[in-house]
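Issue 218. Parser rejects a valid record. Input:
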Amino acid sequence: MMNNNNKIAVKKICHCCQEKIEKVDYKNAEFLRRYVNSQGRIYPPRRFGTCSKHQRILTRALKKSRIMGFTPFIIK
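Output the parser choked on:
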């Protein structure tokens, strides 16, 4: 696929599919913080190329982690 600057866009590959991760542990805060921006919002799939299956799993794990107190709701 070509964009406006005549550069070829490279398709991002899902990290979880590459590493064959089936379950995401909500207690692993360091892994989950990779998918959260500086304001505490969950990154969209286009940012890291996560597939829809793993994006749903990550979202559920992040929300559960926030409720349990492992990751903050808002980062100031």
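Fixed in the parser; the record now loads. The chain has four helices and no strands.
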